[in-house]
């Protein structure tokens, strides 16, 4: 028996390789047994936080075992290979029409949409379409296309800062304040001019979980149009809310029922309830998406329009989204989202009973909420210390400052998702209570490791 063969008989952790230290900078010169490599990688990844206790992320951390089975069946499918995987391509198209219908497009079959790797890529396209359409209008009028601007709240997700930076559009941020905790149309006219390509409204502000009043903003834009003649379109960033509102607040008009809303994005991997790697963007009709953004790929001998920054991308997530549409149905999505809101409301109520805390906005629009410290509390500690204490029990509940103009206010936030049960919430509420009691009894400042970063997906 060769040494190599004998190594298979070695006890785990004593096999050749498992006792050695691997270089972190060079690919090893020799091969290893799969068991060895697996054990090494598995053990290192074990040091990550536990995804189910990650209350920082919006992204799906639980799917049922049929979804896991479907994932395993399909992890080798490349979404771009429409010709080779026409069934997956057809399912993608079906999901797009279903979303257009869910968001009340006037004629769902006449919409245009694409799946993406997440809301960020989807937002890039929402923004690009607004920019290109504006350029076409301006060129047709013989006017300059040099200085496009986009109007958005200062509490936008970082993907919009990226869009403006990468695609050279001036970002005009409407500040949030204690009187206008989110963009609501107040003084919007100050930010808008002939170079405004559009206004982005957020359905589910990342920092606080609340919905911006899309209809009110659209009505303000109607007034602005009456006064100035400027017809400004809107994009709704529904990364979280576009997969919640249709089920929990069907009468809330935030979607294609408003003529100004040209496009909507969502994250299939947030409240679409799919594992990470899926976003969607839908345009209200084909004519609002400039044709010169579309590429045609070969598909069953014909050609299929595509819109994507990526070329290759996993196809499995699209199948998982379709699985959930069938498995849950409208009623199932409603029950799942309402249950998450119920768990979040329980947590918010428990936290509001603790003397030092004030809830920024109760959960309701989304199962997301944040709180801040009242004046006179936290003499020797901050929300960052509470985040560190909770981390000791595995809970990841980040604290972070608000955006510009309110940056002196720190918030701590909980994102409840499918899979955070009332039982888990009870355990977390008890841990928060115990930790606050401990921190309040400190008679000197809490020593803190300043080098450690705080996880925050915003
Ligand atoms: C999470 C989020 C994004 C980014 O979404 P990804 O799917 O992570 O790329 C954009 N906008 C808002 C409002 C978000 O909450």
Descriptive labels:
458 residues; alpha/beta; Aspartate Aminotransferase, domain 2; 2 domains; 7-stranded mixed β-sheet; 4-stranded antiparallel β-sheet; 11 helices; 13 strands; 35% helix; globular; disordered C terminus; binds pyridoxal-5'-phosphate
Shape: globular
CATH level-1 class of the largest domain: Alpha Beta
- N- and C-termini, Cα separation: 56 Å
Using the coordinates shown, work out and report the CATH topology of the largest domain.
Aspartate Aminotransferase, domain 2
- Which kinds of small molecule does this entry bind, naming each only once? pyridoxal-5'-phosphate
Helix content: 25-40%
Query: Do you know the CATH architecture of the largest domain?
Result: 3-Layer(aba) Sandwich
Q: How many domains, as an integer?
A: 2
Short account of what is shown:
The chain has 458 residues and is α/β, with parallel strands linked by helices. It folds into two domains: 46 residues, no CATH class; 397 residues, Type I PLP-dependent aspartate aminotransferase-like (Major domain) (Aspartate Aminotransferase, domain 2).
């Amino acid at each position: 028996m060769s040494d190599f063969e004998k190594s298979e008989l070695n006890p785990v952790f004593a096999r050749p390789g498992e006792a050695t230290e691997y270089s972190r900078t060079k690919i090893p010169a020799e091969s290893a047994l799969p068991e060895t490599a697996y054990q090494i990688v598995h053990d290192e990844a074990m040091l990550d936080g536990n995804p189910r206790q990650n209350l920082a992320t919006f992204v799906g951390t639980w799917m049922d075992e049929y979804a896991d089975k479907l994932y395993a069946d399909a992890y080798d499918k490349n979404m771009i290979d429409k010709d080779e995987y026409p069934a997956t391509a057809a399912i993608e198209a079906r999901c797009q029409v279903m979303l257009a219908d869910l968001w009340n497009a006037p004629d769902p079959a006449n919409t245009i949409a694409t799946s993406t790797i997440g809301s960020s890529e989807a937002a890039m396209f929402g923004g690009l379409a607004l920019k290109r359409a504006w350029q076409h209008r301006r060129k047709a009028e013989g006017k300059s296309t040099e200085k496009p601007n986009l109007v958005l709240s200062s509490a936008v997700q970082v993907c919009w800062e990226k869009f403006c930076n990468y695609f050279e559009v001036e970002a005009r941020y409407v500040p949030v304040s204690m009187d206008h905790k989110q963009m609501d149309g107040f003084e919007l006219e100050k930010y808008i001019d002939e170079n405004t390509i559009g206004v982005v409204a957020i359905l589910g502000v990342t920092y606080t979980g609340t919905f911006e009043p899309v209809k009110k903003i659209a009505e303000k834009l109607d007034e602005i149009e009456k006064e100035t003649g400027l017809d400004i379109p809107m994009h709704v960033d529904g990364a979280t809310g576009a997969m919640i509102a249709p089920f929990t607040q069907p009468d809330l008009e935030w979607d294609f029922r408003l003529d100004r809303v040209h496009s909507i994005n969502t994250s299939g991997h947030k409240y679409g309830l799919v594992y990470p790697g899926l976003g969607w963007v839908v345009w209200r009709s084909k004519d609002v998406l400039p044709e010169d953004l579309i590429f045609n790929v070969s598909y069953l001998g014909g050609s299929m329009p595509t819109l994507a920054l990526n070329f290759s991308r996993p196809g499995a997530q699209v199948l998982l989204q379709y699985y959930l549409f069938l498995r849950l149905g409208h009623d199932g999505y409603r029950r799942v989202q309402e249950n998450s809101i119920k768990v979040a409301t329980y947590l918010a109520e428990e936290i509001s009973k603790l003397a030092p805390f004030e809830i920024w906005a109760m959960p309701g629009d989304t199962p997301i909420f944040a709180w801040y410290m009242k004046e006179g509390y936290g003499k020797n500690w901050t929300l960052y210390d509470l985040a560190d204490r909770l981390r000791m029990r595995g809970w990841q509940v980040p604290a972070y400052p608000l955006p510009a103009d309110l940056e002196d206010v720190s918030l701590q936030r909980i994102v409840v998702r499918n899979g955070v049960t009332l039982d888990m919430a009870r355990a977390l509420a008890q841990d928060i209570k115990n930790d606050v009691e401990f921190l309040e009894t400190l008679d000197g400042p809490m020593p803190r490791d300043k080098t450690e970063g705080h996880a925050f997906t915003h």
